[in-house]
Design goal:
Elements lengths: L1 H4 L4 H14 L3 H10 L1 H13 L8 H18 L8 H18 L4 H24 L5 H26 L5 H4 L3 H16 L2 H12 L4 H8 L3 H19 L3 H5 L1
Helix pairs in contact: 2-3, 4-5, 4-6, 5-6, 7-8, 8-10, 8-13, 10-13, 11-13, 12-13
The chain binds a DNA duplex (20 and 20 nucleotides) through helix 7 and helix 13.
Keywords: DNA-binding, Sigma factor, Transcription, Transcription regulation
Protein name: Sigma-70 family RNA polymerase sigma factor
Pfam family, one: Sigma70_r2
DNA sequence: ATTAAGTACCGGATGTTTCT
DNA sequence: AGAAACATCCGGTACTTAAT
């Protein structure tokens, strides 16, 4: 290790240290590595997508499979062998994509699920509303959080379709955009895994199960973190978002 | 004792198959 | 074709366990 470091650039040395930490069982380091190579996974997904032979799967599906391959790669890469991670991961990621596509007879279900994310949000929002013993402001804050997250969700969808323009004017007025800003800043104040869960789920539309894999936690735990995060954001929004709009 | 995380189960929504 | 029964997935929650 010491011998090697002298021939490495500072950035490389830092990366190598990160790998060492991850191998030592440091979950944070592992997560940072996964995060670091998200872009690489996306490129791999794009390559495969460009070579696709049919249109049964959307790019998002390729990306999801690529992410799975990336996680496997991070977990199994042996940094000591002197092979570049990208070289090692490329094989595994394209394998994961092929695997995923092959076993995606449940593809339709997944697509439907993704389509229904928004309605699920609305549904869970209704639950909150129905709770009788919560005070009115908390309920309103719930609605604010839910609506803004919903719009953020739609916005990312629009980015994907490349039709960014127009929609804001129709649906999201100035007030809504302000609200969205407030939600974003509330999002920034979340800490640790809570922020990660909200970011992955709402901004990147990654399902709980996959977030769980990425963070090395259980699905149930992700649900808990999700709920806690929404609660925190609701608290933050109390008295800020409400008086502007409600 | 407190907090983070895991397990097992529930209910809702959707998709699929079977029956009329 | 339409209804009904069944299956599956997903997020949520109550309870338990482990770590500090």
């Amino acid at each position: 290790m010491d011998r090697l470091e002298q021939s490495l650039s500072p950035a490389d040395a830092q990366l190598q240290a990160l790998w060492l930490e991850a191998r030592g069982g440091n979950a944070g380091a592992r997560e940072r590595l996964i995060e670091r190579y998200q872009g690489f996974a996306r490129i791999m997904a794009a390559k495969s997508f460009a070579r696709r032979v049919n249109d049964e799967s959307e790019f998002d599906d390729y990306l999801q499979y690529a992410r799975i391959g990336l996680i496997e790669s991070v977990d199994r890469f042996d940094a000591g062998r002197g092979i570049k991670f990208e070289t090692f991961a490329a094989v595994r990621i394209s394998g994961a994509i092929l695997n995923g596509l092959a076993s995606s007879s449940e593809l339709q279900r997944q697509l439907a699920t993704r389509r229904s994310i928004l309605s699920e949000r609305v549904a869970s929002l209704r639950d909150e509303e129905a709770r009788p013993d919560e005070d009115v402001f908390a309920q309103l804050a719930d609605i604010a959080v839910g609506m803004a997250l919903g719009f953020m969700l739609e916005e990312t969808g629009m980015y994907r379709d490349g039709e960014r323009t127009g929609m804001d004017d129709c649906y999201a007025g100035l007030e809504m955009r302000q609200l969205q800003e407030q939600v974003r800043s509330a999002l920034k104040e979340l800490q640790g895994n809570r922020a990660t869960v909200i970011g992955y789920h709402y901004l990147q539309q990654i399902p709980f199960e996959q977030i769980a894999t990425m963070l090395g936690l259980s699905k149930g735990r992700i649900a808990q973190l999700h709920r806690e995060a929404l609660g925190t954001m609701r608290e933050r929004l109390r008295g800020t978002a409400l008086d502007t709009r409600f």
